[in-house]
From TrEMBL:
One of its GO terms (cellular component) is cytosol. Belongs to the ThiD family. This is Hydroxymethylpyrimidine/phosphomethylpyrimidine kinase. One of its GO terms (biological process) is thiamine biosynthetic process.
Length: 269
């Protein structure tokens, strides 16, 4: 057996105790795509399907130790980031990522929830723009997050395309702006806008699913892209696979939790 020949991916994110999002969702997604997943934990939250009740951030020197330990043993082919709450943490992650060789970086810039609740300190937005996003092979902001990054509101599809081009100018090679999951009254699809490094752009659409079980959707989408990149798939193919299998996980619901439940990683094929 060749040492470290199995495809390996890394998630840099927080632990969600109910298993629906964060590192847990990322590892579920890696496993579903037959990629070995490792993690750098940056925080932990005590939460359930009703909400988050407590949180704890890990010291930066402990995060340094996690990076060092993985670099000394594993051959990670691709990495992704999740929620990074403040400037000092973002700078730490950037320094560690540049220090070690963990393959292409997929940035899920967790700024707001699907319903617009802020998760990243305002002071850290510029750090995200200037330090982390320029390292990204792929960035996957949701509809609300993309508006924060470019600092203007979207009124139509032309605004989304303009925002993707502006995000690309920050140094991101490939951009996916995920469509809004907030029901509009007559919504039939959720469409993601893709702008690739070669200038090609297109929409990827799946049927809208009326469900409260969408926790971990964004985490899973970016984690699937990461897993496929770790297996040497092209970015275009990785994004297409991520869109398809995330829809499968949303549309095949599981009865876990009372309110905002997880998506179903067992449905991913």
């Amino acid at each position: 057996m060749i040492t470290n020949s199995f495809p390996q991916a890394l998630t840099i994110a927080g632990s969600d105790s109910d298993g629906s999002a964060g590192v847990q969702a990322d590892l579920h997604a890696f496993f579903s795509r037959h990629v070995y997943g490792s993690s750098v934990l940056i925080a932990a939250v005590a939460g359930n399907s009703y909400g988050i009740h407590a949180s704890h951030s890990f010291p930066l020197d402990f995060i340094d130790a996690e990076f060092k330990a993985l670099a000394e043993d594993f051959q990670i082919k691709a990495a992704k980031t999740g929620m990074l709450s403040d400037s000092s943490l973002i700078k730490n992650i950037v320094e560690n990522y540049q220090r070690y060789h963990f393959g292409p970086l997929i940035v899920d810039p967790v700024i707001t929830t699907k319903h617009g609740a802020k998760l990243l300190e305002d002071a850290a937005i510029n750090t995200l723009r200037e330090k982390l996003l320029p390292l990204a092979l792929v960035a996957t902001p949701n509809y609300s997050e993309a508006q924060v990054i470019v600092d203007f509101e979207f009124h139509d599809q032309a605004d989304v395309a303009k925002a993707a081009a502006q995000i690309q100018k920050l140094g991101v090679k490939d951009v996916v702006i995920k469509g809004s999951h907030v029901y509009q009254g007559d919504q039939e699809t959720v469409s993601d806008y893709v702008l690739l490094a070669d200038g090609s752009h297109y929409l990827l659409s799946e049927k809208y699913v009326d469900t409260t079980h969408i926790n971990g959707t964004g985490d899973t989408f970016s984690a699937i892209i990461t897993a496929e990149i770790a297996k040497n798939k092209s970015v275009r193919d990785a994004i297409a696979i991520a869109k398809r299998v995330t829809y499968e996980a949303i549309s095949n619901q599981i009865a876990v939790g009372h309110q905002f439940g997880p998506i179903n990683h067992w449905a991913i094929k």
